[in-house]
Amino acid sequence: MGGDVYTYFCDISDREAVYTTAAKVKSEAGKVSILINNAGIVNGKRFLDCTDENITKTFNINTMSHFWTLKAFLPDMIEANHGHLVSMASMAGLCGVPRLTDYCASKFACIGLEESLRMELDSEGHTGVHSTVVCPFFVKTGMFNGVSAGILGLMEPEYVADQIMMAIMTNQEILILPKIFVFLIGLKGIVPTKVLYAICEYLGTNKSMKKFQGRTKQG
C-alpha cells in the first residue's frame, strides 16, 4: 500500500527496555499516534498450582507492560491532542473463569487502567486522545489451544481484527465479542450468583480450561 514498516524486538515486561525501544521508535519512525497493547500470556493452571513466578510473569506481561508503553507514547498524543490507545483485555477481564485466576486478575486490571485513564484524559480536556478496550471470548490464535468454547465456539482472528479496526475508526470505548456477552455481562450485576453459575454451566465456560494446552513450543 506504499507505506513503510519498522519492526523492533523488545521485552515489554522490562520497563527500561520499553523506554529505550520507544525512544528508538520515535527517532527512526516518528511519533506514534496509535498504540495497541496486544501482548499476553496465559498459564491455564489451578490457583494453587500457579507458582509465584507464574503469577509475577503474567502481571508483568499482561498488565504492567501497559503502564510502560503508555508512559512512553502517551505524552506525544497529549501534546498533539490526537491519538488512540487500544488495550487488548478479555472477557476474562469481566467475568471470572476457573483455572484462569492470574490471567483474569491481570485482565481485570487492564480494564480498570484503561477506564480510569480514559476518564482522566477527558477530565483534563485531552478529548482528541481516544481509547478502546477490547474484551473478546476465545480466539483461534493458538494461545488457548485445547480449550472448550462450548456452544459459542472460538472466533476467527480476522473477524476480531476487523471489529477492532472498526472500533478504532468510530472511537468505540469498549468492544465486547461476541456481542451476546454484552447482555450476559449486564446480567452479572443483576442476577444472584447461583444463576450466574448456572449460565456458565450452560455455556460451558466453567469447564472450558480443563483440557487447556496452550501454544506448542517450536524448536
What's a concise summary of this model?
The protein contains 6 helices and 4 strands; from the N terminus they run αβαβαβαβαα.
**Largest sheet entry:** 4 strands, parallel
The gyration radius over C-alpha positions equals 18 Å
Envelope shape: globular
Strand share of the residues?
5-15%
Structural class: alpha/beta
Q: Averaging pLDDT over every residue, what do you get?
A: 94
Strand order of the largest sheet: 1-2-3-4
Run of helices and strands: HEHEHEHEHH
Helix content, binned percent? 40-55%
Low-confidence stretches: none
Q: N-to-C terminal Cα separation, in Å?
A: 34 Å
How is the quaternary structure best described? single chain
Instruction: Give the tally of β-strands.
Output: 4
Figure out the total of helices. 6
